[in-house]
Structures are given as structure tokens and as C-alpha cells.
Design brief:
about 35% helix; single chain; about 200 residues; alpha/beta; two-stranded antiparallel sheet; 6 helices
Length: about 200
């Protein structure tokens, strides 16, 4: 089976340093999901025993094989394209009172990360959060009292385990190439069409 093999990252509201760390963390997520380690973990999991999975989670209607194929296809809910690519639009915001590190809206392409926690997190911790939230983008949901007994939280556990040891059966890590930065500008009526609003977009493939 063809495995996921590329990432496409866009960031907003980040410094150059934080953007670079996010891209490295995304590369860690790619290598984790493409590993034999992830395959072995997922295939040995009894999905029906996960009490925290929502009734509308894709885990309720997929076998382990079908779910693994979904992960490898890179077909996020919001685009449904089997491009074997991990597509990320990471937007930073800051909320000092929130305990939430990151979140997404179903069927939307943006992963929102709280700078209160994300800014000073290690690249591994950033990657762990991205790995969790990207699973939601595939249609995996958790809810209720037992929400931590769900696949996204197992993924957090596996991610830490993967990067804490050596896995000799895994394929060679997928290299993350040099980041390409694209500056895009546009005009809006809010600025009377006179001044441009510009942002930098980092693309990794």
C-alpha cells in the first residue's frame, strides 16, 4: 500500500522562528504516520473498545485496514482528495485563559493553535499536538466522559513512544526539503482598496 509521503504547510500569525519549528514538527508527524510503528499500533488496536469515540467518528464504521488506508491517503474531510499528503493550515492565536492547546472545526481546513502553549513547546510537543488534530481532520471524533479513551489520545501516546526509542523496522525517514516561502498580497474594501495586506506562506512538499 502506498503511504503518505509529503506535507503541505501554511501558517498564519507566526514569527519566522515559530513557523520554522512548526514545519519541522509537521515533518515529524509525517514520519510518524508513515512508519511501520504506526501501522503495527493501529492494526493491533480494538477500535470497538475505545469508549471515547463519538458515534459520528469514522472509527465507528471502518475496519482497521480501512482506517489505515484513510491515514495513508491524506484525504482530509475538507477536501477528500487522496493526494498522499498531509495538508496543514496552522493558525496561531493567543488566549491566556484557555486550557486548549489546539482545535479544529469539522470540515474546515484550519488547525488553530494557542500560542500560550504552542509558542514555547518543543518541536516534539508541537508535532504531538498536530498529529492529534490532524486525525480529527480525517473524521475521527471523541466526546463524553471517556473522551481520552479515543484514537486521537492513543496517537498522542504512540507519538511520544515513537520518538523516545529506535525502531529499526521502519523505513528511512522522509526528508523534509528546504521550505519555500511565498508572499501573497491582496487589497480589500476595508482598506479602501489603497493598501495591500500581505502574508507569507510556507510550502513544504
Amino acid at each position: 500500500m502506498k503511504r503518505i509521503n509529503a506535507i503541505n504547510v501554511e501558517t498564519t500569525n507566526m514569527s519566522g522562528k515559530l513557523e520554522a519549528e512548526t514545519i519541522v514538527a509537521s515533518g515529524m508527524v509525517l514520519n510518524f504516520y508513515a512508519s511501520n510503528f504506526f501501522y503495527d499500533k493501529l492494526m493491533s488496536t480494538n477500535l470497538l473498545a475505545l469508549r471515547g469515540e463519538s458515534q459520528n467518528s469514522v472509527t465507528k464504521r471502518m475496519s482497521n485496514d480501512e482506517l489505515y488506508d484513510l491515514f495513508m491517503s491524506g484525504a482530509e474531510e475538507w477536501n477528500g482528495i487522496r493526494d498522499f499528503e498531509l495538508d496543514l493550515k496552522v493558525d496561531r492565536y493567543y488566549s491566556w485563559y484557555s486550557k486548549v492547546v489546539g482545535w479544529i472545526m469539522p470540515m474546515k481546513p484550519t488547525l488553530h493553535v494557542n500560542g500560550k502553549y504552542f509558542d514555547n513547546a518543543t518541536e516534539e510537543d508541537k508535532g504531538n499536538n498536530i498529529a492529534h488534530e490532524w486525525s480529527h481532520m480525517l473524521g475521527i471524533r471523541h466526546s463524553g466522559t471517556w473522551f481520552k479513551e479515543s484514537l486521537p489520545y492513543l496517537i498522542n501516546k504512540w507519538f511520544r513512544e515513537y520518538y523516545s526509542g529506535t525502531h529499526n523496522t521502519d523505513p528511512a525517514p522522509i526528508p523534509v526539503p528546504t521550505v519555500k516561502y511565498i508572499t501573497e498580497c491582496y487589497r480589500t474594501w476595508r482598506r479602501l482598496w489603497l493598501w495591500e495586506t500581505c502574508f507569507r506562506r510556507a510550502v513544504v512538499s
